[in-house]
Amino acid sequence: MLSCRMRPAGCHISTSCFPRKLWGAAFILCTLVMGVPAFPTPSAESTGATGNCSFRGKYFKEELRLEGEPVVLRCPLLRSYLEDSANPQHLVTWHENSSAQLIPVGEPRVQTKDDALWILPAVRGDSGMYICRLREASHCEEIAIELKIFEDAEAVLSLISYPQTLTLGADGMLMCPDTQDFSQDKGGMGVWWYKGPVLLGGAGGRFHNVEEKRRLLIVNVSMEDAGYYRCVLAFVHEGRQFNVTRHVRLRLHKQTDTVPVIISPLDTISASLGSRLTIPCKVSLGTSTPLTTSLWWIANFTQIDSAYPGGRVTEGPRGEYSANGENFVEVPLNFDPVIREDLSTDFRCIVSNTLGFQTLRTTVKEAPSTFSWGVALAPLTLVLLVLGGICLHKQWKRRAGKAYRLTTLRTGFQNFHSIPEK
Amino acid sequence: MASEAASRPFGRRPYKMQSFRIWDINQKTFYLRNDQLVAGYLQMPNTKLEEKIDMVPIDPHTVFLGIHKGKLCLSCVKSGDDIRLQLEAVDITDLSKNKEQNKRFTFIRSESGLTISFQSAACPGWFLCTVVEADQPVRLTNNLEDSGMITKFYLQEDK
């Protein structure tokens, strides 16, 4: 993990030339002037006056700071700065190894405080390797940290800045980073935020300086908020005031994921026992990508594969498509065939992405039988109707015939009577 | 039959391990120091150290979390009264939720607005957190009231 860029010669010289230091971790300086930067190898075991100390190479995280400002270097060999500082069982010492400029021993500009190395303030010549040595009862380790000091100029912004991300359209906070060593109780005086030459945080604007937390609140982050911000902290040390500047590059993040919405199936699905059935689970993703979306089925809270190892019920192939700028994902649940047990099983379709999940329950219901008394009795009714019709017709014909005869008789009778009257 | 189901824990489910950029609400990102996951502020030349978080969803509420393309997984380990976050060299895609011994790798995710929190399933009440100070180990906390602990994170899909 650690890079191996150190040379053996440098290692030998850098460790053997340091005098042994006592408890108290005073700053130790290696007064070496070399034509090229000299670095020890990671594997080298130093065997100088300081005893066996294994060298871990160059720490992969560089420190980039501005000239004229205070610099604090912490030893990355400590697992936790907070917890280990309270542990008196270790000794941290600092050694400088720079080809550029020498710092005389005991210069008040460079001090060690709480295992950390303080430079108040840094000059360009302080750039170089700093070696921190951690000595504990059982072992000793060293690591080199690279410090680079720059002039505060536009050209170095892209190098020294800290990228931070806020979401477009939402409120968000920028943080004035790596300033914990200059906190209020340690002499911090306040924080100011700038974008370009403009001081931010005035009343009524979208920018609010949350000073005690060293944050800048931006209301309703918009596209034009992208770019470089500068937070400046005033810090007083032994009566001298310093500025601590950090540059933040705001990157904007567009929240493309939307909460997925299951649009089918319905609550209940009708199916005939013994027949095949497919229930598609269809999800609308809005503009979200199907890549970040997982969609699956469960039966009685068990994955389909586990619930039906025999494969009677299976998940079908996943489909992804888009229509009118909206993305959809679909996974069908296939039954071959539907059996009575399915009517009492809790089937759920589940969809999940970065913004959340949704689940929809569906129940299989036995379809109403196709046999219907109405349909079965229809021909019989028809026959009965026809028969009834015929009967009625015959009845009517019979009655009509009788009436005719009666009329005829009556008429005949009348005629009969009329004749004698004549 | 049971072993068949167990040997392919995700079945035909189109699970892809998803990788996300993660940062806490104080803008700290994750990186490794002495094989330990720490959260801090990274300047441009150091951003190559940033660790993405790998996630495999188990069910709607739970996920496995890892880093290094899922080759190191986050777990909650109890020893006595001590509860700590651990990085273990197991492949995230080999984990199965049905195995009790994998419970320590399981985290319950909960979203609130744009932020997300992760509670350990094996250590109920303990949440993945960073501390306010930079360059400190990522850990677990059961004290959500402590203003020095940050349990809310932002995720952004890593493309």
TrEMBL record, chain A:
Residues 1-38 form the signal peptide. InterPro entries: Ig-like_dom (IPR007110), Ig-like_dom_sf (IPR036179), Ig-like_fold (IPR013783), Ig_sub (IPR003599), IL-1_rcpt_fam (IPR015621), IL-1_rcpt_I/II-typ (IPR004074), IL-1_rcpt_II-typ (IPR004077), Immunoglobulin_dom (IPR013151). Residues 42-144, 260-365 form the Ig-like domain. Keywords: Disulfide bond, Glycoprotein, Immunoglobulin domain, Membrane, Receptor, Repeat, Secreted, Signal, Transmembrane, Transmembrane helix. One of its GO terms (biological process) is negative regulation of protein processing. The keyword Repeat applies. One of its GO terms (molecular function) is interleukin-1, type II, blocking receptor activity. It is a single-pass type I membrane protein. It comes from the Eukaryota. The chain crosses the membrane at residues 371-392. SUPFAM superfamilies: Immunoglobulin. Its main location: membrane. GO terms for cellular component: cytoplasm; extracellular region; membrane. Belongs to the interleukin-1 receptor family. PANTHER family: INTERLEUKIN-1 RECEPTOR FAMILY MEMBER, INTERLEUKIN-1 RECEPTOR TYPE 2. Associates with IL1RAP to form a non-signaling interleukin-1 receptor complex. This is Interleukin 1 receptor type 2. The gene is IL1R2.
TrEMBL record, chain B:
GO terms for biological process: inflammatory response to antigenic stimulus; insulin secretion; lipid metabolic process; negative regulation of heterotypic cell-cell adhesion; negative regulation of interleukin-1-mediated signaling pathway; response to glucocorticoid. Gene3D superfamilies: 2.80.10.50. GO terms for molecular function: cytokine activity; interleukin-1 type I receptor antagonist activity; interleukin-1 type II receptor antagonist activity; interleukin-1, type I receptor binding; interleukin-1, type II receptor binding. It is found in: Secreted. SMART domains: IL1 (SM00125). Keywords: Disulfide bond, Glycoprotein, Secreted, Signal. Its main location: secreted. InterPro entries: IL-1_CS, IL-1_fam, IL-1RA/IL-36, IL1/FGF. GO terms for cellular component: centrosome; cytosol; extracellular space; nucleoplasm; vesicle. The keyword Glycoprotein applies. Belongs to the IL-1 family. Anti-inflammatory antagonist of interleukin-1 family of proinflammatory cytokines such as interleukin-1beta/IL1B and interleukin-1alpha/IL1A. Protects from immune dysregulation and uncontrolled systemic inflammation triggered by IL1 for a range of innate stimulatory agents such as pathogens. This is Interleukin-1. It comes from Chinchilla lanigera (Long-tailed chinchilla).
